[in-house]
Design a protein that fits this description.
about 240 residues; mainly alpha; 13 helices; globular; disordered C terminus
Length: about 240
């Protein structure tokens, strides 16, 4: 929550609630709010609109959960809101309004058209590699993103802290011998320019064990993807 003050937008408690569901119900309709809405799929359907979608990604990331799967407010969220907003008011009144403005603007830009923000697309959007559902990235930007690029490893072992995720791959490299992204910048470029990619390029399942279906025009979801879809996979238990 202290680190959240530097972002300018109260989010850490709410994010945790929804992110845990993303891990335990990845790709499930309504429950996994990381999946774009149907109207996003229909509207952002060309290069110019996909560029706009990337710029607006922070807004979708924040608002989509509240619309698709709203939850009752809990006390920790009230505390989170109070702490961050109080920090913003304190800085603006006693120091300068430029401080909260800088923090909020940096957060929005850093989650939009920014190389590090490529991980939001890279992690679970399908890129035609057998429609693999989860991708990792092992480049240098992991140094400033707490190793979030080690995403297959993270989904297999979500309780392992980010600084130790490289050890997972080092200990059991044979389990992560699969396509990965060499560049988050290229991920954004490919997402915007490729006509077969867009908000629909995600694996989406019906709730309660329903059949998986892919929303995009690429090949259908395969068994290889399902091995990285949950946090408690047979592969992870083997390791």
């Amino acid at each position: 929550m202290l680190a959240n003050c530097a972002q300018g937008l109260p989010s850490c408690v709410t994010f945790k609630r929804y992110h845990l569901e993303h891990h335990y119900h990845q790709g499930e309709d309504v429950i996994d709010v990381d999946i774009p809405c149907e109207w996003e799929v229909k509207f952002f359907n060309n290069m110019a609109l996909k560029i706009l979608w990337v710029f607006l990604q922070p807004a979708f990331y924040a608002i989509r959960p509240l619309v698709v799967n709203p939850k009752p407010v809990i006390p920790k969220e009230v505390i989170n809101f109070t702490v961050v907003v109080s920090f913003n008011i304190f800085c603006a009144y006693f120091l300068s309004y430029r401080i909260p403005l800088f923090n909020v603007t940096s957060t929005l830009l850093g989650m939009g058209f920014h190389p590090c923000a490529g991980h939001f697309i890279a992690e679970h959007y399908t890129f035609g590699e057998g429609d693999q559902e989860t991708y990792s990235y092992y480049g240098i930007l992991n140094w400033v993103t707490f190793n979030v690029g080690y995403h297959n490893e993270h989904h297999d072992f979500p309780r392992i802290p980010g600084f130790r995720l490289p050890q997972v791959k080092k200990i059991a490299p044979e389990f992560y011998d699969m396509p990965d992204h060499p560049s988050w910048t290229m991920v954004i470029y490919n997402y915007v320019t490729r006509p077969d990619m867009g908000p629909s390029s995600r694996v989406k399942r019906a709730q309660k064990g329903g059949h998986a279906n892919k929303m995009s025009v690429a090949a259908s979801f395969t068994k290889q993807a399902s091995s990285t879809a949950t946090t408690e996979t047979p592969r992870a238990k083997t390791k």
